[in-house]
Write a structure and sequence with these properties.
This protein is α+β, with helices and mostly antiparallel strands. It has helices at 2-21, 29-53, 58-91, 96-108, 112-125, 130-143, 149-162, 167-179, 183-195, 203-213, 226-232; strands at residues 219-224, 237-244, 250-257, 264-268, 282-290, 300-304, 308-309, 315-318.
């Protein structure tokens, strides 16, 4: 609006200027200089006005609107075609391309759950196309990366089996493990990269693996066999204690009320007695029972494990 006001003022000035010009035979030098300055300002303001007004972008805006219209029209067409494709697949359930088309149609219409069903059916018929595998993994991650972990890892493994030297696939799998905050999975993937003879440039992965192993993080799963589990129920509370070999001080402790005791437990960095303490290499697992909810002298030692290498072991079976 301010640009328009200035232009109007300049136009009014010129109207009066040339009206009075007829009264003089010639225009003096000062008037010529003033006219030149005013003309420059006029064209400058006009240019800025055109630029800021969006007139230049009008064609581009129309092009974007046309594209959006085409997309909306295509989505409507796809939605209309989905029931037709579903009917065809009822009659031809082994039509691989049909299931792929249906999955992609559901993605376009933002129906990820049905897309996952269609992809799974397609891959049950043929699981050799890496693009389809990647698309299915992407859908599963968007739906629920943790709940779909088993499926996601299964199809990542199929991708890797098709091209064992492809670092891009390993990197996708690493990104997934970081997204779900699974340190064990991350470490496992790094170990597979480092030990893969077909992968050449793996120095940064080896460095990352070493940093993880020395970062003070650990997670070991304890699986309790049924025969041992039954013998543990004699006490109200159980303490799972990790101690470094030849040390009297517990390194990590986890307590369970007997009514809440699972048969598969995890002891990890959150259970360390001293938060920033380093991870010992060799430890032993002790299971102690008590009738009281706190550590006391009356605790009974029920179990002592063999030496466990925390840098290598991710699971230990109590039997």
């Amino acid at each position: 609006m301010i640009y328009l006001s200035i232009v109007i003022i300049i136009v009014i000035y010129f109207i009066f200027f040339f009206k009075n010009l007829g009264e003089d035979i010639s225009v003096n030098f000062k008037n010529k200089k003033l006219i030149s300055i005013i003309l420059i300002i006029f064209f400058l303001i006009t240019g800025i006005f055109i630029k800021d007004s969006g007139i230049i972008n009008y064609t581009e805006y129309n092009s974007i609107l046309d594209k959006h219209y085409e997309i909306r029209k295509n989505i409507l067409t796809i939605k209309k075609n989905i029931p037709i494709l579903q009917t065809k697949l009822l009659n031809e359930p082994d039509y691989y391309q049909g299931w792929v088309m249906l999955a992609k149609s559901y993605i376009i219409t933002d129906d990820l759950l049905d897309a996952s069903y269609a992809y799974e059916k397609a891959l049950s018929l043929k699981a050799t196309d890496p693009i389809i595998l990647e698309e299915f993994i992407s859908v599963l991650r968007k739906l629920d990366p943790k709940a779909n972990k088993t499926k996601i890892l299964k199809y990542f493994d199929q991708l890797i089996a098709q091209d064992i030297a492809n670092l891009n696939i390993y990197n996708m799998k690493l990104n997934y493990s970081i997204d779900i905050n699974d340190a064990d999975l991350t470490k496992n993937i790094l170990k597979k990269i480092v030990s893969n003879p077909k992968i050449k440039d793996k120095e940064k992965y080896l460095l990352a693996l070493r940093q993880m192993e020395n970062s003070g993080m650990f997670d070991i799963k304890i699986r309790i066999e049924k025969s041992v589990y039954d013998s543990l129920t004699k006490h109200n509370y159980l303490y799972f204690i990790l101690k470094e070999n030849n040390s009297k001080v517990p390194f990590a402790v986890k307590k369970y009320k007997i009514s809440d005791l699972p048969s598969y437990i995890s002891i990890n960095s959150n259970n360390k007695m001293i938060e920033n303490s380093s991870i010992p290499k060799d430890v032993k697992l002790y299971i102690k029972g008590s009738d009281k909810p706190s550590v006391n002298k009356g605790m009974v030692e029920i179990y002592e494990s063999d030496t466990i290498d925390l840098s290598e072991s991710t699971e230990y079976i109590v039997n």
